[in-house]
TrEMBL record:
SUPFAM superfamilies: Jann2411-like. Transmembrane segments: none annotated. Pfam families: zf-CGNR (PF11706). InterPro entries: ABATE (IPR010852), ABATE_dom_sf (IPR023286), Znf_CGNR (IPR021005). This is CGNR zinc finger domain-containing protein. It comes from the Bacteria. Gene3D superfamilies: Jann2411-like domain. Residues 130-171 form the Zinc finger CGNR domain. It comes from Allokutzneria albata (Kibdelosporangium albatum).
């Protein structure tokens, strides 16, 4: 699946935030945000806690499988993010593009706007079926399914292999009479 390149980094930030260690400290959060191209990511302990609470709300978008419910949850988050679209052009860039928060907004407000709109782009581009949670029972990782057929069930090959090997072993034991 081809994701709008302008929305993909924002949706990827949502995935990174949801998958972040719940005990992450402010320097770790700043590093995480920087790794997803967040401009001037500077958060303190209170803002880190606010972003982790936001990540818990974003997780619901991934965990919900009903499209209408997923859209309702995301619409509430878009409203909570208080998105204010503007058209921007940066120095040296000729092509105008949309920003969903002001450059002067706090890091937390910008991250909320970016992640909510990024997931909205994915839902609108894919019909809503490309957001997922790993199917391995003890794994909590979320992902965006960019596979061609849209049938991804696991966050990684490692998680998939663990399930497939366990299933194979269970079938093998069952075939030998125990």
């Amino acid at each position: 699946m081809q994701i709008n390149p302008y929305g993909s980094d924002k949706a990827s930030l949502a995935v990174g935030l949801v998958n972040a260690d719940p005990g992450i400290d402010p320097p770790g959060m700043n590093e995480l945000l920087l790794s997803y191209n967040t401009t001037k990511p500077v958060v303190d302990a209170e803002e880190t806690a606010e972003l982790l609470a936001w990540a818990a709300k974003l997780r619901v978008v991934f965990e919900t499988t009903d499209l209408d419910e997923r859209i309702a949850v995301l619409n509430r988050l878009l409203g909570e993010a208080a998105i204010r679209p503007t058209i921007a052009r940066h120095e040296g860039e000729m092509t105008p593009h949309l920003h969903y928060s002001l450059d002067t907004d706090s890091t937390v407000k910008r991250v909320k706007a970016r992640t909510a709109t990024g997931l909205a782009h994915v839902i609108c581009a894919s019909g809503g079926g490309r957001l997922g949670c790993c199917a391995r029972e003890d794994c909590t990782v979320v992902f965006i399914d960019t596979s061609r057929n849209g049938r991804r069930r696991f966050c990684s090959t490692q998680c998939a292999n663990r399930i497939y090997v366990a299933d194979h072993r269970a079938r093998s034991r069952g075939g030998r009479g125990g």
